[in-house]
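Format is sequence with structure; example below:
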Amino acid sequence: MDSLFFRAKPFSRTYFGIPLAIPTLAGLTPPGHEVCIVDEMVERIDFDDGYDLVGISAMTCKATRAYQIAREFRRRGVRVVMGGIHASMCPDEAAQHVDSVAVGEADELWAGILLDAQSGRLKPRYQADGFPELGALPPPRHDLTRHTQYFCFFLQTTRGCPRACNFCTVTTQNGRALRKKSPNQIIAEVQAVVGLPNPLRPVVIDRERDGQKRRVASGAIFFVDDNFAIDRTHALAVCRALKAFQDDNDVHLNWFTQCDVKTGFDDDLLAAMKDAGCMNIFMGFESLQPDALRAFNKKVNVPERYHQCIANVERHGIDVTTSIIIGTDYENARSGDEWARFAETNRVFYMFPNIMTPYPGTELMAEMETEGRILRREPELYNIRNVIFRPKQLAPDELRSMYVELCQRTLGLNRLLKTAIAKLRRPNRYYLTHRWRLFIWLSFSLMFVVLAARRKLSLLQLVRLLLAAPRFLVLDGSLNALGYLVNAVGFGTFAVSERHRLRAAREETVTPATRREVSPSLAHRDRVG
């Protein structure tokens, strides 16, 4: 939805952003090789384009499609190497579909893979030896992507996470030691993407309340660190560098990132992040149950302080995206109601309800394998939107129903618009000029009509949005208001689509034994890390 509205391209493929692995490896490719990046989310794959070597990176939920792509290229005699999180966690499975598997971070493997492929000695497996330092990494080659079709650029300031949450693959893939890029290195990467024609070209003039004007980049940057603020000193240095870059170039960058709830109580850091352009912080609140948090090994979370965390972050003019997990062993049929009340009480606008998912390579998967609780094996279902395990206190159908109802109650269009209107009373820093307000109002209204014509919006929703748009885009005119309106549409349509999608799932009953025959490679603990 962000791409649809801010790019005004309703009939072309757009996406949130391209995952960072492929542009990073493109930047690490030695001279003498011609590199082509293809992202099927925004373009079609030409399987007959004469490639010598194809590299694929995929998360678990996209592994099945990755294998299909590999099969098509191999059928044409093209060698295929696969890496990324799923191949690293399930290398034996991936090896059945590709010529070579790269396990772990591939930064220091890539040049050797290319050399072996060029000389006809491609090995069936490459294993990263430890975790590479980031100080010498060149900027990712976002210039080789279809960057005009993305809403934001993915960049990164650190890798690794000292935490050890039992549902997370980060420590297995990236280690617990934090590795950092220097502030100068990060600014070089920011400079590289700001210099591209789109989507960060400063095209909108906005006005601060003191009457000063500043160019605002029309897109955003997502710093995909697992925890941007885990090293507070480094985070502050990055924020100072970003602020200086924007002041020196008379530009404002919208960016967001991921932090734990501890950041919500650090006023100095929050102020620095806001001054540097941070608009939103994604936080894993996970559960309201202390026992569940202990089982997750999520020691920094204290449910009694969640409301303080949200209020303090918003007091600094930054929005909070709350990520929650339902279906833990310590929840019952009332847990959905508790989260819905939490969202209403704290006026939470951005909330991501996730069904607990035991991913390959995690402690959670190992525990559930031992207990025989895995119900579904197909990789494409491992996307935090499906019930693929047997809950302890709920039937699978009850958990699906809880998830659907929670989406309706927290992500419904009317609730989000009501919540957003209350948040508009909060002072914001950047406001569009009146000329741009009128232009964007007309553009957004056209996009609403297009979505209704494509049956993404009902007639009642269309009328509601057309009536609400002037208040958000003309009377208020802040960048926050734009984000609220667009995401209200996005979350609202998502909630409806999830209800339709899972309606069919309720009618299907699958036993563990049946699914174990579908994908035996995921059924063995030695193949999930």
Remarks:
- The chain has three domains: 16-127, 151-307+319-326, 332-529.
- Residues 332-529 form one domain.
